[in-house]
Amino acid sequence: MRENPLAYGLGLPREPPALSVVIFGASGDLTRRKLVPALFSLFLKGRIGRFRVIGFARRDWTTEAFRALVRAALDGEEFSRVDRALKDAFAAHAEFVRSDFDDPSGYAALRDGFAEPPNRLFYLATPPDACARIVERLREAGLADQSRGFARIVVEKPFGRDLDSARALNAHVAAAFAEEQVFRIDHYLGKETVQNIMLLRFGNGIFEPVWNNRYVDHVQITMAETLGAEGRGGYYESAGALRDMVQNHMLQLLCLVAMEPPVDLRPESVRAEKLKVLRSLVVIGAREVGTETVRGQYTRGTADGAEVPGYRQEPGVNPASTVETYTALRVHLASWRWAGVPFLLRTGKRLSRRATEISLHFRRPPVRLFADGAAPPPDTLVFRIQPREGIMLGFNAKVPGPTTDMRTVAMDFSYGSAFGDELPDAYERLLLDAMVGDATLFMRRDEIEASWEFVTGVLEGWRVSGALTLETYRAGTQGPAAAERLLGDGDRQWRRL
Hints:
The protein has 13 helices and 17 strands. The protein is of the alpha/beta class and about 500 residues long. The chain folds into two domains: about 140 residues, NAD(P)-binding Rossmann-like Domain (Rossmann fold), CATH 3.40.50; about 270 residues, Dihydrodipicolinate Reductase, domain 2 (2-Layer Sandwich), CATH 3.30.360.10. Strand 14 and strand 15 form a beta hairpin. It is globular.
């Protein structure tokens, strides 16, 4: 019997088969903070039963030393009420292979010493420059072969640093793994509110009819951080805000807002619609960067009540750095649904508040009937991705009394109050999806290249036009004032952080 495609997709209860999760770069911060806790949470919920967690790193460790790291990663507040015996039982599944990423003997030990279970999920929690080497050694050792069980590989961001490097890395990966074996992860896609964009649009009858340029004036996507370089100045000097946040997280959020309804929830159906959005992005090149983008860098200021240094005073940062810690873009889509609707993207470090959100700002009513003809504030629909995940609808209501004065009020949905349970971490959801082979929330090869094509155009535009001058902003503020010009000549305003 043919499978019903509409029965496939997000939210289905699934359990992976017995498998080995191999973490390359197992001694790193990502393993300790995210991967081990996510795997342990799946273990506590009974989602994984027969499994191994195999650490692969250059550290001179034994399996027992790696198990100690695993136990230490579970000692935080999140699992403070979990019995020690359960933590020890989970840690007993951990093994360790000491090897350089280039050493074939390490991969041979991985192949020969851990043949069971035959299903393997390789997670590359490594610096980007190690990816091609690891993939090549996996291929040489026969570990990409799927004759006995599946072999899948999860690749972290950044996936390249421009279009050419992304294409080269995709070619390296494709030489060892078929596309259906590759899971390019963006952890924002595992967040509940991000997944809820599709559910709200296509699971309700009242939103999709107004989800277009007839009713929406503009869309804002904000990813604001209060943190600075935080000891990662060396990495940030080679990245900057555009590469670090826009190419992956922000363009993926834009895709979910702007995409057309997929015919079903199969991974290829969903990702095909996202690709159409990326291909519809209007190019921002040398002639446009001056009007459609803003670059900024934070200077000394105040964060959480304390004086903090400027970016150029951070460890590992060039004292004359021109790297942007803030960027804002006005993006247009050449599509029937969104023609004429600007998507306003902004992201920055050392801003006044930590917030990731998407807001749709609707057009004002055509006639001003109330409150002496004053223009009512526009209705807004806000997806709060972090913190306090939820969705808020802001609309105008009459103030009690004999006048027709109005005020903006809110219908506010919060996951914590609606469902009570603590939200699963994004990595928990995405690891489970990779284990069962559901690629819906992962990026396809052509998606990666299409997003880099757009971002590389901006980077090249900045270089060719000489628009590398920076608008400065004090740490702890809203960002550079120059971002206001992206709003246009009307009465649009950035949502306050």
